[in-house]
Amino acid sequence: MAELKERLRADMTAAMKARDELVKSVLRMTLTAVNVAEVAGEAARELSDAEVLDILTKEAKKRRESAEAFKGAGRTELAAKELAEAEVLARYLPSQLSDEEIAAIVKAAVAETGAESQRDMGKVMKLVQPQVKGRADGGRVAALVRAELS
């Protein structure tokens, strides 16, 4: 069984015992998303840690986007709840790269591919994405690649 999935289950059990409703509900929703992904498709199978990590990343991104939408609509209490849920999920994600670290990876990729203009962005992104997967938001990476190529 995937270690990350086991850790999520153990932490959910601990949250239930501690009566921590926020952590319990977030982990329950996340484990449900993992279970749905496991039974989706042609054959039910157990997900690897990398696949569980992808689901965690998507769930965290959903929370951040919802928080932004709620802030824009003036619903600060709902935005705060979404951000708190995103913080719970962040405990299970690898540490995020700084803009400087991403910029260094982008510069190396531009040099390696010989990219010169915006038309070469796909080549650069193809090299950069595997290196930053799960550790940087795609939008941030794309913005830094655009800045480097302009």
Write a concise keyword list for the protein shown above.
7 helices, 150 residues, Hypothetical Protein Yqey, Chain: A, domain1, mainly alpha, Arc Repressor Mutant, subunit A, single chain, 0% strand
Structural class: mainly alpha
| CATH fold-type name of the largest domain | Hypothetical Protein Yqey, Chain: A, domain1
Query: Oligomeric form of this entry?
Result: single chain
Number of domains: 2
The amount of beta strand, in percent, is under 5%
CATH hierarchy: architecture of the largest domain: Orthogonal Bundle
Q: Quick one: how many beta strands?
A: 0
Measured between the Cα atoms of the first and last residue, the distance is: 46 Å
Q: How big is the Rg? A: 18 Å
**Which CATH class of the largest domain is shown?**
Mainly Alpha
Low-pLDDT parts are: none
| Major sheet size, sense and barrel closure | none
